[in-house]
Specification:
about 350 residues, alpha/beta, Rossmann fold, N-(1-d-carboxylethyl)-l-norvaline Dehydrogenase, domain 2, 2 domains, 12 strands
Amino acid sequence: MKCKVAVLGGGNGAHTMAADLALRGYSVNMYEDERFIDRLSVLKETLTIRSTGVVSGTAKIDMLTSDIAKAIDGAKYVAVVTPSTAHIQVAEKLKGVIKKDQIILIYPGGFGALEFKKVLGDDCPVILQTNNLPYDTRLNGPASVVCTGKSPVSVAIFPANADRGFLSDIADISPYDRVYTDVLECDLSLVNPSVHSGPCLLNFGAIEQQDLRGKFCMYEHFTFGAARVDLAIDKERKAVGAAFGYEIRALEDFVEPRGELTWQDIYMKMHGEPSLTPIIGPDSIWNRYLTEDCPNGLVPWSELGRLCGVPTPVMDGVISVYTVAHERDWRALGIKAEQMGLAGMTVEEIKEYLQTGKKKA
């Protein structure tokens, strides 16, 4: 038996990670918030997850609980596999419970390491976060998932100067192909906000009228215009990254163009990838492809642009349209500099903080 991993979350990714790890010999505890754990009644009774596809088998976990202290007790790694909108809530539940010798893993990061550090303060253990979820997966029934793809992720550590000896374990838990300079480079390399924004923005009508037109499949219905919007967003976040000294190539890594990235490359990848085209959704404009990627992706990217003096008009435009469509001020509700613990800091001070986890007095 390999080490114990606590998987925090009860959605598609959490189920699949729990199943994958259990099938490969890890001891797995799962945690779900008390507000939602009743939805997992079958799993709570059987402690069994059935997975088909790339991850295949019937997996037995050790525990499902809404008591986070029990879930993480004895776990070497605490894997947070939730939407990024839940990071603050999870961090607050871990405060006073998590131990310094445990390691937090966040799938995907989405500014999670900076948020966790802001909440946990000096009691914050080392954090590893990824740029993406390692699975293309969906729940297809109670305690049952279908995983259509599994890919290596890229990772970052906070603080960046922490001992990296645990990376040999991470290579087995979820194989990675790159270690970023720091977590902010990872946050600027998130894939979803630069992929979902274009097709969601330009397909509001199709998403809202599914009862009349049939199910909407974002990748199958990916358009030329959506690819152009995604490319423009990518160029803006590249410029923000350059101001911090990063060369952001997240879309290139995902799309794998033969030369300089073009909107045509993006279109061909999104519209022709066998692991993506079967995915159904978003099922409404309140899907996380919009309500997570905007406040927890586009807003902090734009916020970083303001900190370093780089304009982001396309991102700001998408944020503004979503704000009108949802009648919700995403700019105010999104991740701001203060929530990241970066308010009032210069680029140089931020870079030092990312390396050491400490701020100058």
